[in-house]
Amino acid sequence: MTYSFAGMKALVLHPSAEVRDGLEQRLATFGVRAEGRWPELVPGDESADLLVVDIDRGENGQFPWGGGAAPMPVVGLIGSETPGRLQWAIDQGLDAFLPQGATAKLYSALVLGFARHAERAEIRRREAEAGRRATLRLELVQAVIALMRDEGIGEAQALKQLRAFAMVERVALEDAARLYLSDVTKRGQA
């Protein structure tokens, strides 16, 4: 798979103007417009496509989001590989790491960072969907009971019909239950 970062905006959060400038130039070779910051992000920075952050000088509360909840991929620059600094980076949920002296390998870090960030976003999406569907369990039970009553069938057959309805409507079973109950309510009001 080929990754293109052209047209993206990156932020480089590092105390050294020299390092920021070097990364901005390196990112420009990939078509990425970069801006340097230190010591923190400013309002509106959450809309950037990428954040490159200095792990050595990073602090808790430096980001306007919790650990692992960055709205963009975060690549950590490692100067000294101390256990405490690495643990801080892990706690922040950084997506990729790059030794400060190896910026020639920035492309690899970007690819890994974007892939890891996308993976985390998919996990969060699935968890949110599972949570949403869990809130509809009562409607699922109510729909099965309504089908049993309306059609004069048993539980297994009612659930089978509801599944078939969900497949036809191309929705989750819980959403099909909500649709069915809405239809039952409309018919009862007519």
Automatic annotation (TrEMBL):
PROSITE patterns: ANTAR. Residues 120-181 form the ANTAR domain. This is ANTAR domain-containing protein. The lineage of its organism: Bacteria, Pseudomonadati, Pseudomonadota, Alphaproteobacteria, Rhodobacterales.
